[in-house]
Amino acid sequence: MKWGRYNPDEVQLYQKNATGLSTALIVGSHIGALAFQLEACFDEVVCIEANPITHDLLQKNILMRGLSDKMRCLNVAISDRASLIPFLCNTENSGGSKIAPVFSDVDYTYDSPESLMIQATCLDTLFAERTFDFILMDIEGGEINAISGGYELIKRSSVFVVEYVPNHIKRVANKSIAEFANSLLELRFDCVEFPSHGIKGAPHECLLPSLIELDRVGGYEDGIIFTRM
Fold first, then answer.
1. I need a labelling partner for 194 at 20 to 30 A (CA). Which of 14, 152, 205, 209 fits?
2. What's the chain look like in SS3?
3. What is the pTM of this model?
4. What is the tally of structural domains in the chain?
5. 3 domain residue, yes or no
6. In whole numbers, what is the pLDDT of the chain averaged over residues?
7. How far is Cα 24 from Cα 41, in angstroms, rounded to an integer?
8. How far apart are CA 144 and CA 169, in angstroms?
9. What is the CATH number of the domain that holds 100?
10. pLDDT in tens, 39-52
11. Is residue 1 assigned to a domain?
């Protein structure tokens, strides 16, 4: 928050991509740092937050800001199926809370997170009859399973933004970078942008090479932006 607000350059780019859109879904909303900066772009914003403590804070933030008429939040984890799953609620950085990693290490447990069993579902079940123009997903390594369970919903969107942290893909989800790329390519967007790295082009041409290179250099992207023409 060194700028007085959360990631202003990132937010500005999302606002630009939201032009002319009306509905948004934010998966991994935390306390609303991004959601509250984007809500003015949309008529409706649905937030999903799996951490029950953070969800309660988000709900209070919505009420205090007088936004309950256009914003709502759901307390559920998003995955590829409906089930109870182990979840880590981090205490030092609650934004790092996540589905329990397949391969855990000190990076995920350094603050002795609380371990819970929470309900998970998939987006295509939760929103079978809905369409969101803009979908943003930041769930600390759970993205590939969430995409698998939300293909139809995401395919109906105009803009899809997803966080990419290579170590999360490999250690939290136990998936390869190629598997992550394939899951994204199946969404059939026309353009992909890595805004922090100046990369933009057709997904089938630049997605996998860019993901591999970021992994090689220890990089990441807060939000890879996929758009349709």
1. 152
2. CCCCCCCHHHHHHHHHHCCCCCEEEEECCCCCCCHHHHHHHCCEEEEECCCHHHHHHHHHHHHHCCCCCCEEEECCEECCCCEEEEEEECCCCHHHCEECCCCCCHHHHCCCCEEEEEEEECHHHHCCCCCCCEEEECCCCCHHHHHHCCHHHHHCCCEEEEEECHHHHHHHCCCCHHHHHHHHHCCCCCEEEEHHHCEEECHHHHHHHHHHHHHHCCCCEEEEEEECC
3. 0.94
4. 1
5. no
6. 94
7. 9
8. 8
9. 3.40.50.150
10. 999 999 999 999 99
11. no
**114 has a pLDDT exceeding 50:** yes
For the stretch 48-91, pLDDT in tens is 999 999 999 999 999 999 999 999 999 999 999 999 999 898 88
Strand 191-194 to 221-227 pairing: antiparallel
Confidence of residue 2 (pLDDT cuts 50, 70, 90): very low
Q: Which domain holds residue 90?
A: 8-227
Q: In this model, does residue 104 exceed pLDDT 70?
A: yes
**In a domain? residue 82:** yes
Q: Which residues, including other chains, have CB under 8 Å from residue 180's CB and lie 6 or more apart?
A: 143, 144, 164, 169, 211
